Amino acid sequence: MTSLAQIAAFGGVVLLGAMSPGPDFAVVVRRSAVSGRGHGMAAAAGIAVGVFAWVAAAATGVAALLAASALAFTVVKVVGAAYLIYLGVKSLRAALRGGGTLELNVPDAGGRGSWAAFAEGLLTNVLNPKAALFFVALVPQFLASGLSALTLSAVALAGTVAWFLVVANVVSLLRRVFSRPAVRRAVDGLTGVALIGLGLKLASAGRP
Questions:
Q1: C-alpha distance from residue 193 to each of 89, 93, 190 (Å)
Q2: What is the Cβ-side half-sphere exposure of residue 167, based on CA atoms within 13 angstroms?
Q3: Per-residue pLDDT reduced to its tens digit, 134-156
Q4: CA 173 from chain center: how many Å?
Q5: How far apart are the C-alpha atoms of 105 and 151, rounded to whole Å?
């Protein structure tokens, strides 16, 4: 298998993982729907940086240590689950408050809002120990075939950010629909329930 084919294979597996429904997807959809394209793209960038970090950790053996250590795995799992539940409760509170009207003609707020969205995406990803298990199983196979850790990390970052930027932009195109308070309440409510459910599922998960 040529290097180009190996890169394509690795990128395809990472992309399929990114496309799987999960907390990353929920965060980008909610940020894009409620706060706009800019915040959705910032969350997508945070998730991609998290994936880059996990690939680098898997390549250097750090992720393997996490996966092998019951204590470390449990700590990350509990913190990650608590963070997802926190985001879910926050989203449900927004739904109960009823949101409000969305100014479609006002550009997305930048500054601290975008950084908060970036941090939310980053933390959602890096506090998920299942990502460690995924990359610990995947990355060594491609390192053994001759690809460098930097190449794998760059491919993972590019594929992940590309997918979630598509999600952010598609959702933002429907922003006029999300400008309706009832729709925004529904998005907040469904996202909140999903995040809490994912958090509880993560909290109850054991190491394979």
A1: 8, 11, 5
A2: 28
A3: 888 888 888 888 888 888 999 99
A4: 20
A5: 41
pTM of the model: 0.80
Contact 30, 195 (CB under 8 A): no
User: pLDDT tier at 192 (50, 70, 90 boundaries)?
Assistant: confident
Name the token pair of 73.
């795995």
Helix or strand or coil: residue 96? Answer: helix
Sign of CA dihedral 12, 17, 19, 20: positive
CA-based torsion, 34, 38, 44, 45: positive or negative: negative
Phi, psi of 32 (to 5 degrees): -70, -40
Tell me how many degrees the CA angle 117-122-123 measures, rounded to the nearest 5.
100
d(CA 169, CA 78): 32
* Torsion sign (Cα): 133, 159, 154, 47: negative
The amino acid sitting at 128 is: N
Q: To 5 degrees, how large is the angle CA 122–CA 125–CA 127?
A: 100
DSSP 46-86: HHHHHHHHHHHHHHHTHHHHHHH-HHHHHHHHHHHHHHHHH
